[in-house]
Here is the input.
Amino acid sequence: MTEKRPRVALFVTCLVDLFRPTVGFAAVKLLEAAGCTVEVPRAQTCCGQPAYNSGDRRDAKAIALQVIDAFAGYDYVIAPSGSCAGMIRQHFPEMFADDPATLPCAEELAARTWELVSFLVDVRGMQEVAAAPWQRVATYHDACSGLRELGVRDQPRRLLASIAGLELRELPGAEVCCGFGGTFCVKYPDISDKMVGDKADEIAATGADAVLAGDLGCLLNIAGKLSRQGRSVEVRHVAEVLAGMTGDTAPIGEMR
Amino acid sequence: MVSAAREAILADIRRSLKRGPLGPEKAAELDARIAAHRRNLIPARATTLDHARQIDLFVTMAQEVQATVARLSSAADVPEAVARYLAAENLPAELVMAPDPSFDEIPWAKTPLLDIRRGRAEAADAVSLTPCFAAIAETGTLMLVSGANTPTTLNFLPDTHIALVHADQVVASYEDGWDRLRAADSGSEGGSALPRTVNFVTGPSRTGDIEQRIVLGAHGPRRLHILVVENLRGAKDGEASG
Amino acid sequence: MHATSRDFTANARAGLANENLQQALEIMTQRGFPARRREVVARLPEFDALRDVGRTIKEHTLAHLDFYLERYEQKVVAAGGSVHWARTPEEACDAVLKICRAAGAKTVTKGKSMIAEEIGLNDFLEKNGIRPVETDLGEYIIQLRHEPPSHLIAPAMHLVKEQVADTFRGAHRALDPKRSLAEARELCDEARALLRPQFLGADVGITGANFLIAETGSGIIVTNEGNGDLTQTLPRVHIVVASLEKLVPTFEDAATLLRLLARSATGQEFSSYTTVSTGPRRPGDLDGPEAYHVVLLDNGRSQMLGGEFHDMLRCIRCGACMNHCPVYAAVGGHAYGWVYPGPMGAVLTPSLIGIEEAAALPNASSLCGRCESVCPVKIPLPKMLRHWREREFAKKLTRPVWRTGLSLWSWVARRPALYHALSEIASRALGWAAGSRGRFRSLPMAAGWTGVRDMPAPEGRSFHSLWAERAKREGRRW
Here is the structure.
């Protein structure tokens, strides 16, 4: 259901802010192309996943309250990340389930929070993107939270299919975790390494030039492994490709 | 039967559920739920088929799990079908058969070379022949019940199990089969005098325990051969089933 | 069973380095359970709806567990059987021993039972002069190897067939040493031949139960080999060891769960043998046990009811979660250190043996959620893993370096101005340090990452600082 020029707040995510602002700018470009105005609330930092997944409910709630405040009043809150959007949509209400004072606000925020690509397709009704041709064979990794918490799967594939010159090749085991898992990858590096090693092998076996995904955590992990293996597969966030900004910045982890 | 452990466990359960023992009204409600034994969602796979198609489905599903199936037009054909099967499998023409009255009508005299013993299975038995209680079309499953005439060992000890299914025993679902069992048992007072064992058998014995590779004949029968007799019992040859 | 869950990290490392195990895991993930499940689920349009029904049946039963247990016991007794209630593994073992002694048992055959593993029954019986013989092929193999099971359904899943062959050669000394044991067929035939006399000679047969039916006082075993049936039919005494939460109200309820179980566990429509047994043999029966006993085990289940881990009681022990878990696929079942591996093991084990002992298990997960997505009764496994992490945090079981690091992160995250100043500094510094290479091969304090993969470099400016510049350029306030 499309409204006139909805007022969207961008949830940048800590990884995009620190590692790859291009993804944030790509998100802004796509949202504006979808007829939205985009603002970036200053008082945002993190969605609180690290604390939440480590069992620190208190800190997670404190951060969540900050998010609820910072994003009050906007029509939509959009994150170029399934895990951050999932955190807000699924887990904020869960965290405040026993807190009648805060629960309504958490639910209200959750209801208007979306992962970027699913927002473009499912809410704004986007069927294609205006991006210039991109001659690549690309494969797509389904980030776990986006897939399982938010149902993000068909939407990025649909939009990518509209880019001339881009051939999408399905990744066997696309839905298998890449081994990032936030703190998991550094707490259990051996296991994470096996998982990302398998993922990198599957990617390489497709023969694709590029691998795309909607979460920067996965992408940093996958890019780091491919690069350590000496493989030259281009790693990018799906937003950069959809926004036609692949010329603006080098792929993740590559020479600049 | 009262024991300290029993009382402690029940008390612990109630404490965790934050209540005392259920009152008589609630207990009656739950007893009624049990007595009603309402069916839950049953897949449409077999229930939407007419009986002839259900038989076809039963045969297809049974074959999928490596049972072999022979369809016979009457019970009179059973002895020859058994003899033929044993010969084709290079098995000696001997078997142990359930001492079930339903087998009395079968013209065993037609195959005098078939060595038949009636009773339970012993270690040396290689082939058994049993009747069935029902056959479940949904997954090609045989329903066999234990009893004085149908010892369970016949289903498991021999290497080859031949099972006789009459067309009117084919039902859509496990629930259909179990309802027939309830009806058969309700003759006894108080209802529910179940047999010691009800076996739902779907294909021969198998294991995948070594490298996920399926091997037939782990401890139970390596071969399951099902004879499906199409005509209703009691109908003469050539008469249409009602 | 003695737990080594404390050593998860070391066990996991050993698993990763174990080439046979890695080969076995590869076989499972590439052509085993997950593929078969996918195919069989695709053939049943009602599968997802059945998952909701299954969940409802289990929840209803748990909410009235005391009632259904009492009804179940009444029916078992009415059918001529006995019920023995056991709060602890010790009480359960004692009950089994008493029955075996009364029967003058020397040899006991066993169908596969995770409860028997949980209470350490085999060791206990052996200590008391009774010989237990595992008859499930996988259990038989690990019994010979003195190993615990590594999977709920396929206990010897961690082995390749060469290892099984070696074990058989070592244990079956009377057979021709030059015989071929190259194929699964040959190994299976050998076990069949050797176990047959054991079945026939056993005094007591012990099985588990996949379900117990309150309506009739029946127990259900779901097998493929037929060993469970021989175990419970041939000996004079049949003992069922089962935990409380195996109860379902009626046969119809069991049928629903059975439709979910085989498909979720092995990708079959139905197992080769699904057997419903009620009491001992009837007058006139030609075979069957003369006595039927059920040992009902609590061991922590009643404590889980109504609490944070209540949902775990719905588990029907199908193993789908571990079949689809990338952590299990990396390290195998033994890494978890106790009876129950994989995601369900990570949630259940702390409830049964304590979080201190099993602290690592709920943490060794990326919370990817694939387990929950295949659970036939929709258990929210990641949510419960997180609950355990909360308990560990509250008990300060987390390593100080992580607690401090995360506290610091959260502290800064609650101060946006400071956070953004630091973010800009960090992105500039790291961007500069990486130069034009675009990545780091190593980073101090990040060895967990850079030990095995490169770290891509930041672009060099933070999004917030760039957005501020853009706003300024466009004459906007921000």
User: Anything to note?
Assistant: The first helix of chain B runs from residue 4 to 16.
